[in-house]
Structures are given as structure tokens and as C-alpha cells.
Amino acid sequence: METILATTYPIHFNEKAYVELARIVKENNYSSIFIMVDDNTLECCYPRFIQNFQTESPIEVIQIDAGEIHKNIETCVGVWNAMTELGADRKSLVITLGGGVLTDLGGFVASTFKRGIDFINIPTTLLSMVDASVGGKTGVDLGVLKNQIGVFANPQMVLIDPEYLHTLSSREIRSGTAEIIKYGMTHDIHLFNEIKDNPNVNLVDLIHRSIEIKNEVVTEDPKEKGLRKVLNWGHTIGHAIESYFLENEHKEALTHGEAIAIGMVCEAFISSKTQGFSIEKTNEIKQAITAIYGKTIILPEDVQPIMELLKHDKKNESGIVKFVLLKDYEGFVINAEASSELIKESLAFYNK
Fold first, then answer.
1. In 3D, which of 148, 125, 124 has the Cα closest to residue 137?
2. Is 275 exposed, middle or buried, given 0-12, 13-18 or 19+ CB atoms closer than 10 A?
3. Percent of the chain with pLDDT over 70
4. How far apart are CA 22 and CA 43, in angstroms?
5. What pTM did the predictor assign?
6. What is residue 295's DSSP assignment?
7. Is the per-residue pLDDT at 327 higher than 80?
8. What are the structural domains of the chain?
9. How far apart are CA 58 and CA 64, in angstroms?
10. Distance between the two ends of the chain, CA-based, in angstroms?
11. What is the dihedral sign for C-alpha 257, 324, 184, 225?
């Protein structure tokens, strides 16, 4: 796979990526290197990484607890303290080795420590390969509210090694697939069709194109002033559902992709009611999503708490919930609005 060039950093693939990593580390003569892992990547991914990483710089490993529930300021404080105790300075480097939680949090830790030190992203999940590791968004959650605290900061490079995907459960693979589906519906319908029509599709073949799409969007709109909002297709309702299931002790937490998949079904329904998106395609989306992800039951008593969480979406303006909606596949509208009743109808449509 060919290297993809973002505005200020490269995205390298496979064996070439490790060669480029060694080169960047040597050229920058870092005083120390901090490799951030979680419980899972320390066991499953770190051995492969360290076997392929050539450097003479001192290395320290910092481990955090795995899971979205730990993506918060408290975890950051723990990492900042550990780095300080281990002698980190402004010439230190942070390497994030993990999924979206670790990539978001690790980038935020690095970009704020001593007003900002270099970091490199090595995503180890499908979700983080095609989404979190690229685009310069870093941050943590505020309670159950997703990604409320953070900064835009670009890594020195991104290293994509699909071999790490062999460490994932089928559920985590499905979670990452939702972001590829998102790119398919908004930018390249081939991606959606490949997944919809072929249950045994080789997802590795779709990673490069997915990253290309995200990179094209964020290069044009790095700070999400306009076009970049399209990357939130399915995420407005999806994030609210994800947060609700995360905070409710009587619910099993959903993965990010599972929640976003539900969000795409709901937002397709809203699109059919307000943007002329065909009901046939809306039903096609619902059928494909439920075939891949099964059905999550959203009870009547769940609806109002989900509606309350929608009020905190980052795209909102003056208290009004803003959506990305579809006129057609590959034809989207940003900053669209929908009534509360229509949002509730969309949840009922998903439930049918």
C-alpha cells in the first residue's frame, strides 16, 4: 500500500512503516521514548512492535487500563505524572500503540505535556486505523460525554500494520467496519457495497481507501469548520446512544461502531423525511446494518435520556442539534436540523 501524505505528516503502511519510524526517531534524536499501551496491547501487540522497532533511544512503557470508561482526565493525570517521574522532557517522544481510546488520549497527553511534545500513532484496531489515528483530533471524555476535552494536534507519522488486526475479536472488527461503511455512504459507495454484498470481504483491502477519504476531508477542513463535519455521519445519534449505554448500569455497553451503526439507520430515516433520500435505500441501510450488527433493543424509557444526551453533541449551535444527512449515496448535507419528534420517530424506525 502506497504512503498517504497528510498536510504535515505521512501515513506509512506495512514493513516500510517500521523503516520510516526508525528513520524519524533517529533524525529527531529524541531524548527518550514513551510507548503508551493498554492491558490488551501490552500483551497482544507490543511484542510484534518492539521486535520491529530499531532505536538506540531509551524506551519506557506506560500502561493504562483498557476501555472507553478510562478515557478521561484522571487517566491523563496518571500518565503525565508517570512521564514526569521518568524524566520526560520537551525532546521526548510518545508512541501510542492501541485503539481509538489510546490514540485519542495519548495524542492529548503528548500535545499538552510541557505545552506539546511529538507523538506517533500506531493504531492496532480497525476502528483506529481508519478513523482515530488520522486527522489530528485528540481528546478525552467528560463523564459519559464523548470527546468534550481535547485539542487538534498532528502526529509526526502514522504507522499502519494490518497484522495487528489478528489480535482482535470479531466484535471489534465489526466495530471498525462501521466507519468504513460511513465512508462508503458519504464518499465511495463501492466500500458499502463490498461490505453489504460480500460477508467474507477482506477488510484490509478497504483500509487504504478509507484513510484516503478521511485524509482528503481533513486536509480541506482540518478544524471542522465545515466539510469535516461529514465524518460525523451516524455519529450524532450514535454518540448519544453510545453514551447512554455506557452510563446505564442495566445496559451492556456498546462498542463505538455498534452505536454508530444504529445512528446511521436513524439518520438515514431522518434523511428520507427531510432530504429526499429514498426509503428504499433507507431500508437497504437498515437491513445491512442489522445483518452485520444484529439488533439492539431501545426501550421506550431509553428515548428521553438519549434525547437529553443529544443536547451535548459538539456540532450543536445555539442549543440546536445539527446533523449530517444524505440526499443520496455520496451526496450529503451538513448542518441539517431535525425536530425532536422526527428524531424519536427515527429511533422507533430502527426498533421496528
1. 148
2. middle
3. 99
4. 22
5. 0.94
6. -
7. yes
8. 4-168 (3.40.50.1970), 171-351 (1.20.1090.10)
9. 20
10. 42
11. negative
Cβ atoms 7, 134 nearer than 8 A? no
Q: Is 91 helix (H, G, I), strand (E, B) or coil?
A: coil
Q: Which of 235, 247, 255, 259 is nearest to 314 (CA)?
A: 235
Residue type, 214: K
pLDDT digits (tens, 9 = 90+) for 157-208: 999 999 999 999 999 999 999 999 999 999 999 999 999 999 889 999 999 9
Q: Which helix (H) or strand (E) holds 335?
A: strand 331-336
Amino acid identity of residue 334, one-letter, is I
- Report helix angle 340-351 to 256-274, nearest 10: 120
Residue carrying C-alpha cell 490488551: 40
- Beta strands 10-13; 4-5: pairing state: antiparallel
Q: 46-95: per-residue pLDDT in tens?
A: 999 999 998 999 999 999 999 999 999 999 999 999 999 999 999 999 99
Give the whole-angstrom CA distance, residue 16 versus residue 116.
Answer: 27
